[in-house]
């Protein structure tokens, strides 16, 4: 049976930015790149909550990241030797992997919205 580690309610603040992300974001701003784009703060604002689970092997951590719209993204981390397992490190890596997937999803969504403003088309009918 998997072990639930913790549930975190995200605040949507950019405090989750890595030092590398901060440096890249600063460089983008310094260069005056103003075309439509995503920012780390926008990515973090889409995250509602995170749940971390350690699988029975004791070597794998799953981050279940729930977005504000209810969509769920998973991130994983694992170690070869159970002796090297560290819950905090596993959560950090699993979260980063899940958050990277959010970047891809949000990038697609922004590009689709930009495309639709230039190319109006009928939308799918739900229901």
Mind explaining what this structure looks like?
By secondary structure, this protein is α+β, with helices and mostly antiparallel strands. The protein has one domain (about 5-115). The chain is about 40% helix and about 25% strand. Strands 1-2-3-4 form a four-stranded antiparallel β-sheet. The protein is flat and about 55 Å long. About 15% of the residues are buried.
Secondary structure layout:
Layout (H helix, E strand, L loop, with lengths): L2 E7 L9 H12 L9 H6 L1 E8 L5 E8 L4 E7 L8 H32 L9
Antiparallel strand pairs: 1-2, 2-3, 3-4
Protein traits:
127 residues; alpha+beta; 3 helices; single chain
Q: Nutshell version of this structure?
A:
Helix content is 39%, strand content 24%. It has 127 residues and is α+β, with helices and mostly antiparallel strands.
């Amino acid at each position: 049976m998997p072990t639930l580690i913790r549930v975190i309610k995200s605040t949507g603040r950019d405090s989750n930015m890595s030092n590398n992300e901060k440096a890249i974001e600063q460089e983008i701003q310094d260069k005056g790149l103003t075309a439509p784009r995503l920012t780390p703060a926008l990515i973090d604002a889409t995250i509602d909550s995170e749940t971390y689970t350690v699988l029975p092997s004791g070597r794998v951590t799953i981050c279940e990241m729930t977005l504000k719209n209810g969509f769920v993204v998973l991130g994983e981390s694992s170690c070869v030797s159970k002796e090297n397992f560290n819950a905090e490190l596993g959560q950090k890596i699993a979260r980063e992997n899940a958050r990277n997937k959010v970047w891809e999803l949000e990038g697609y969504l922004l590009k689709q919205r930009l495309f639709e403003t230039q190319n109006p088309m009928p939308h799918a009918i739900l229901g």
